């Protein structure tokens, strides 16, 4: 039998752990000025890059700890949005964001005139994404959905599907060759096969050390094979990630074509 005093201590410890794990960092000149009593070394690194993640960070952008290392740098998100906005000459394509997180990509898609359906399983992240979209003034062009992408996918339709599935945290850098089975919560092949049920026009945002041969293999999961393009993404000359384009949104004329372009901010 647990005494009321011990039960209270346990509840207090759980609350403290949750605050440390899911703290909300608001814009200030230094993290300690945000009232944050815990700031992990991995997040401290991204704090120094905060304005490359959101140019309007100082207007009150909100993120949980996972958001710091999972959000797409804004300069790269802008290139994704520019490609989507020019897709097939459509004035306002419908973009589905399957793993929206705190809204970095959804905001940029909407900023370029796309209508966006942003899905994330975490209601806290969706709350942050709604708040962040309001800062950029694009909340009216985004439908935010709290739900499991894998459960919702059979009922989703759109012109373009953007996928930035969890990479497993900053530890992705420890792999010499990051294989698609390391993606979360399912392997890259399973995610891509499900994605094709929605649209063949797919954008995948992947680690810079991803196995490119495996990424190329994804285009062959469709019959006939999808057009395919790889783009190397850089911020201030530093390699950050790989973007793979499939279907009509790819610039290549066949599943084997590859291009590489830099992104700077």
From TrEMBL:
SUPFAM superfamilies associated with the record: S-adenosyl-L-methionine-dependent methyltransferases
Name under which the protein is recorded: Trimethylguanosine synthase
GO molecular function: RNA cap trimethylguanosine synthase activity
UniProt keyword list: Cytoplasm, Methyltransferase, Nucleus, Phosphoprotein, S-adenosyl-L-methionine, Transcription, Transcription regulation, Transferase
Catalytic activity as recorded in UniProt: a 5'-end (N(7)-methyl 5'-triphosphoguanosine)-ribonucleoside in snRNA + S-adenosyl-L-methionine = a 5'-end (N(2),N(7)-dimethyl 5'-triphosphoguanosine)-ribonucleoside in snRNA + S-adenosyl-L-homocysteine + H(+); a 5'-end (N(2),N(7)-dimethyl 5'-triphosphoguanosine)-ribonucleoside in snRNA + S-adenosyl-L-methionine = a 5'-end (N(2),N(2),N(7)-trimethyl 5'-triphosphoguanosine)-ribonucleoside in snRNA + S-adenosyl-L-homocysteine + H(+); a 5'-end (N(7)-methyl 5'-triphosphoguanosine)-ribonucleoside in snoRNA + S-adenosyl-L-methionine = a 5'-end (N(2),N(7)-dimethyl 5'-triphosphoguanosine)-ribonucleoside in snoRNA + S-adenosyl-L-homocysteine + H(+); a 5'-end (N(2),N(7)-dimethyl 5'-triphosphoguanosine)-ribonucleoside in snoRNA + S-adenosyl-L-methionine = a 5'-end (N(2),N(2),N(7)-trimethyl 5'-triphosphoguanosine)-ribonucleoside in snoRNA + S-adenosyl-L-homocysteine + H(+)
Ranges where the record places region Disordered: 1-22
InterPro entries hit by this protein: RNA_cap_Gua-N2-MeTrfase, SAM-dependent_MTases_sf
Statement: the UniProt record of this protein carries the keyword Nucleus: yes
Subcellular location: Cytoplasm; Nucleus, Cajal body; Nucleus, Nucleolus
Source taxon at top rank: Eukaryota
Primary location group: cytoplasm
PANTHER family: S-ADENOSYLMETHIONINE-DEPENDENT METHYLTRANSFERASE RELATED (PTHR14741), TRIMETHYLGUANOSINE SYNTHASE (PTHR14741:SF41)
Quaternary structure, from the entry: May form homooligomers. Interacts with CREBBP/CBP, EED/WAIT1, EP300/P300, NCOA6/PRIP, PPARBP/PBP and SMN.
Any GO CC annotation of this UniProt entry: Cajal body
Family classification: Belongs to the methyltransferase superfamily. Trimethylguanosine synthase family.
Function: Catalyzes the 2 serial methylation steps for the conversion of the 7-monomethylguanosine (m(7)G) caps of snRNAs and snoRNAs to a 2,2,7-trimethylguanosine (m(2,2,7)G) cap structure. The enzyme is specific for guanine, and N7 methylation must precede N2 methylation. Hypermethylation of the m7G cap of U snRNAs leads to their concentration in nuclear foci, their colocalization with coilin and the formation of canonical Cajal bodies (CBs). Plays a role in transcriptional regulation.
Gene3D superfamilies reported in the protein's UniProt record: Vaccinia Virus protein VP39
